[in-house]
Amino acid sequence: MKHRSLQRVLYLFFGILLFLSGLFIGNKGLSPALFFDFRDSKRQTSESAFEPVLETWELIHEEYFDQPLDDELLAEGAIEGMLATLDDRNTIYLTPDEEESARNALEGNIEGIGAEVTSIDGDIVIVSPYEGSPADLAGLQQGDILLSANGVSLTGLDVFEAASYVRGPAGTSVNLLIKRDESQFYLDIERGVISISSVRGELIDDRFAYVRLSRFDTNTGEDLEELLEKLTAMDPRGLIIDLRSNPGGSLSSVVNVADQFLPEGVILQEKFGNGKEKVFESNDGESAEALPLAVLINEGSASASEVLAGAISDHQRGVLIGDVSFGKGTVQSWKTLSNGGGLRITVARWLTPSGAWVHGEGLQPDIEIPLSESNESESEDAQLQAAIEYLNDQLSSGQQVEIKP
To answer: Which of the residues are catalytic?
Structure first.
């Protein structure tokens, strides 16, 4: 009894985590239904609801035939079991190694092949390869399905578990089985250390500032501010923002970026499950706010990319050109756990300034131009050429082209 009482004290705080799912999750994905009441960010729990959890923990430690048990594995299995009941692929648990890797990626330091992936119906799907990364140079494309890595099947795994088989030390190789449309093929990619700026730009057509945003990391806003200062000093007559295959990133980063392009007004709205709302707004006075603007998007433009594009569109600040965007309209909070792991929790929906929710739908471009394989080279980029033509028309007419509401 003394042993049992001590365990109750030690594990009450972690009661959510401690149940038999550690034995079952890997094989059957089973987990019990737990009930929570969230009020003013404080979780109210019922001790009686956790009683079976504690009882199960104690029973398997006392009676399970194969001892000793791995307590860390049981706890991780319990976390994954709870999250599985939410049926939300964006609410996920990260092991300590995965947490470290993900935070390094947010800082712009990646070791592996350099590709953003998601899970869709059990498939590990490329959202976009990072520009200039080994994945990009090897020819991986948005929509490619990763079937296996070095012979290990990735189908059915969560995103971070699948990524653990793909990433590895720089200089080593990974053999991937790729499904693209109806064909399958193997691809060897040498991993590398990827430290690529999320921002680059230049003056094109002798008079338009071109800004490429490949993702929104912690340095994007600051890097963009420096770039715009250089580009605006060249006296551009218009601005092109390229968000194609930008998988998103930090919310605070995209708010900073949007403020540099938008006059005073709403950037996005967050709506939480408890009914609360939060509005993010831009301030007036930035140097790039008055330039005619065209934004390039495609199916790989997701999340924070859609925040920026949606705000520009709703404020009729510029036109969207390209393909329908990815359609991710939720916000995740990122928490570090006591074991060094992490938890990404979907905490809110985000809406465009007009109140539209893009989730599952994406943003519809004002000028829709699919980018076919025949014109993928930069010199034959039909979407970029359409943006240049639009800005030239703006300069010729001196009037705004009508934008879809």
So the answer is: 303, 328, 332
